[in-house]
Amino acid sequence: MKLPSWLTAVPPDPRAYGHLIQLCADSGNLAAGRQLHARLVSLSVKPSNFLGSKLISLYSRAARLDDARRVFDAIPRPSIFAWNAILIALSLHSPDPSAAVRLFAASAISPDEITLSALLKSLAASGPGLSALVAGELHAVAIQRGLAVDQFVSNGLITAYANAGDTGSARSVFEEMPRRDVVSWNSLISSYARAGWYRECLDLFQQMMRVHAAGGVGPNSVTVSSVLHACAQLKAVDFGIRVHRLAAENGLDMDVAVWNSMVGFYAKCGRLQHARELFEGMPKKDAVSYSAMITGYMNHGHVEKGMELFRRADVHGISIWNAVTAGLVQNGRQSDVLGLLHEMIDSGMLPNSATLSIIIPSVPLFSTLLGVKQAHGYAIRNNYDQSINVVSALIDAYSKAGFFYGALKVFELTGDRSKIVWSSIISAVAAHGEASEALHLFSEMISAGVRPDTVAFTAVLTACAHAGKVADARKIFDSMQVVFGITPVMEQYACMVSALSRAGMLKDALELVNSMPFEPNAKVLGPLLNGAAEFGDVELGRFVFDRLFMIEPKNTGNYIVMANLYSNAGKWEEAEIIRSMMWGVGLEKIPGCSWN
């Protein structure tokens, strides 16, 4: 590109250069832009905020982040325009999602709405740990500077809070918005879908449709994809069909993502024929399309149909291989997985983090310590060792292989300790009988701002039960609803009954059982029967045994525990009657049966 003669004047006209650099950025002409930059350097021109911002934008659009940063660093006193330009560049192209936030934290600038939008965008690409730490602080800055009502800032806050797993705060921001566009609605709807709040996702979509009926903003293809995902998880067939009809009748952009959502919805709900008809009618298929259809077949036990579709796939992608691998594991075909893994590698497709999270817990090769270490080494070499699902699988595998130190080391080296990772290490510690360490980790989890889930509660309560820490178990059990708003389910009641029964607090255990909002199952009553047997309470034991007999009459463990309880109490005739009941139904003792 030949430069006009008027641009060679000394001193150069910064506005003329800035205008032309902007044209180069807009047209993607990096070479011409660099030529202009070189000319400025040859004339010993230090970039002003105006020229610097234009050059940063040029290099940012070309993903030349190092060049953009050098320009920024050469600006003597960067203005808010220059700061915004570099923060936008970092949020878009930096491999480190925290780079923009760290640079901003080291500055003394007064942010505007563009600054906050760029920082919030960088959080969208980060893990939940950074989002949880920073989203609230950026929200406070936005409120302080009167920017919280800005639509772009609010949309960014919704996404950042959702990424941090704080869906409640995301909803609060949404409710406080004076105006909402389709991005606002989609940000919250998709956050509900990702967080597993599927019912709330559908409720919010219905609210959006009421607004649309009154002349407000309506759904687009992104909305439809998120809502159909929620419908698939809930098996809400009728709702999903209405969403499908809405998309078709309103002429929404039916891109491949929407097609994939529809195929995935019908396949997951068992409407396999309809899913296949949609699949075959797709104008263009990608790897996700095949994965959705194969997963549908595998989920409903049609392994051969899934394999047949896999073999004739005309597109390639790791997601297809992972769908088949997961399907084989799900259908008890673990013996076929290793061969498929070799076939995948021979085809030039290497396992990714999703592959590892599937095969590590399920393939016998990785149940040995050597196998776990080999998988761990592969994960490190390929930068998968920070993947949440891989970390969780490795912690579990090391624990089951008896190498508790390995599980703890994986946890300690994990930077982004999500709820899943915390739950995994607490479960591993509990499985090894380290109740004090499990309690310590549970406390650390809460201190880190991570809200425990039912898995973490079950793990720490199990550890308390086995270690006889009844007071700790009571405190944690009571905190579920009072502090965290989580209603205990059968597993947590079973753990608490076990803790009380092991400590001989049989009256308290029975009162807890009678206070349950649902009928107790064998997992709850079993520990109570064991406790009655251990502490010689024949009356309670017979009461619990009779209830267990109604639930699972063929479980030999119940007969044996009750017979032994009678024998230890010197009630030989009653013990013989119980044994006769067991022989009468043709049962034999099952080795290794335990309630604890």
TrEMBL record:
Q: Where is the signal peptide?
A: none
Which Pfam family is an annotated match for this chain, by its short name? PPR_2
PPR repeat copies, ranges: 13-47, 150-180, 181-211, 255-289, 317-351, 418-452, 453-488
Official protein name in the record: Pentatricopeptide repeat-containing protein
> Which InterPro entries does the record cross-reference, listed alphabetically?
E_motif, PPR_At4g14850-like_plant, PPR_rpt, TPR-like_helical_dom_sf
**What are the alphabetically sorted keywords of the record?**
Repeat, Transit peptide
